[in-house]
Amino acid sequence: MAAHRKPKQRSLAGSTARTTAVALALAGAAGTTALEGTAQAEPNLTPAQIKSKVDALYHDAETATETYNGVKEKSERTKKSLDALRDQAARRTEKLNEARESLGSLAAAQYRTGGMEPALQVALTSDPDGYLERAARAGRAGERQSVKVQGARRQLAEITRLRGAAHQRFTELASEQAELKKHKAEIQQKIAGAEELLARLSGDDRARYAAQDGHGDGERADRSGSARTEMPRGGTRAPNARAAQAVSFAYSALGKPYVWGATGPSSFDCSGLTQAAWRSAGVALPRTTYTQINAGQRVSSSQLAPGDLLFFYSGITHVGLYIGDGKMIHAPRPGAPVRIAPIDQMPLTGATRPA
Fold it and tell me: How far apart are CA 305 and CA 109, in angstroms?
């Protein structure tokens, strides 16, 4: 009778049940831990903490923007080089086709002479002197033909070289465009993250954050967000007419929105604003903050004059235009239009006088 109880079978079922129960318990514990980890990753941030994180995200976005600007400038140069190479190759191909047509005409003319041995033609002709004269001309034509053949070969070799160079430029352009796409996605991600955090703030806190860069004494924002300005009084004068024009342009841009990658006239990023301001004065600046700092004469903070470019942060990721009285005009960040601000808001790393 004992043999029919099948104790081992019941033991296996019991073990399976216990194993399943343990697995479920562990899974539940793991799920709880994961949820707790997620909650810890997104704690309830104070307004000050949110503002700090938003500042960091906007700074990262601006860093990525300057990288994007540099790659875009390089990409535009590469495209121009590619277009020039393709144009040269097309012109060379046209010349090669002309040379081929000329060589074909010479070959046809030789074929029509019959290809008879020169000595036999002299012997058979009734006008040997005339033949020898024609033969001399034919010899000179042959020399010209040889020159044309060599020229055609050179044209073909140059076309091959140009096409190879164009292919290399095309590959570079494709790589640069892929890099642009990557930086663009990074910028958009940073800005979206900042905007998501800002959405957690109350209306008053958002207003305080929007105004944190401060308005200079010469700027009064109206309800539409535009700005009416007066030149600051008692400040130092611009060192020359070009610097004065750059400052004047910067004042005219007050209130215009920050848009990453923009160089005007309706919107700007930080280096786009300074580039446009000095361009209005007839001075060509490079596109990015880290190249603009090397455009012109370096000046110390004690030598600043209106029109000087001010560079901030260790990575030289932000630039403003000095206007005197310890103030600058700059394009701060997304959501903050071009405005006047004190230059000690950010860590100053250098200054340059373009002209």
Answer: 78
Residue type, 72: K
Domain locations in the chain as residue ranges: 47-116+137-198, 226-353
Instruction: Kindly list the distances between the CA atom of residue 130 and the CA atoms of 21, 110, 121, 136, in Å, as whole numbers in the listed order.
Output: 117, 18, 11, 10
Summarised one tens digit per residue, pLDDT across range 253-310 is: 999 999 999 999 999 999 999 999 999 999 999 999 999 999 999 999 999 999 999 9
Q: Residue length, the chain? A: 355
For 54, 127, 200, 208, the CA distances from 46, given in Å and listed in that order, are: 12, 112, 10, 14
CATH T-level fold of 226-353: endopeptidase fold (from Nostoc punctiforme) (3.90.1720)
- CA 255 remoteness from chain centre: 25
CA 282, 229, 318: angle at the middle one, nearest 5? 55
Nearest CA-CA partner of 50 in 208, 256, 253, 283: 208
Distant-in-sequence, close-in-space partners of 293: CB < 8 Å, separation ≥ 6: 309, 311, 316, 319, 350, 352
- Residue 111: how many other CB atoms lie within 10 Å: 9
Other beta carbons within 10 Å of 154: 14
Q: Which residues pair with residue 352 across a beta bridge?
A: 298, 309
125-133: long-range pairs with CB below 8 Å, 24+: none
Contact 213, 199 (CB under 8 A): no
Per residue in 81-124, pLDDT tens? Answer: 889 888 888 888 887 777 767 666 655 655 555 554 555 454 44
- Residues carrying an active site annotation: 270, 318, 330
**Taking a C-beta distance cutoff of 8 angstroms, is the pair 213, 248 a contact?**
no
Read off the pTM.
0.63
Q: Which of 333, 348, 345 is nearest to 187 (CA)?
A: 333
Please choose, from the candidates 173, 148, 152, 149, the residue with its C-alpha nearest in 3D space to the C-alpha of residue 86.
Answer: 173
Q: What is the DSSP string of 67-131?
A: HHHHHHHHHHHHHHHHHHHHHHHHHHHHHHHHHHHHHHHHHHHHHHHTT--HHHHHHH-S-HHHH
CATH topology of domain 47-116+137-198: Helix Hairpins (1.10.287)
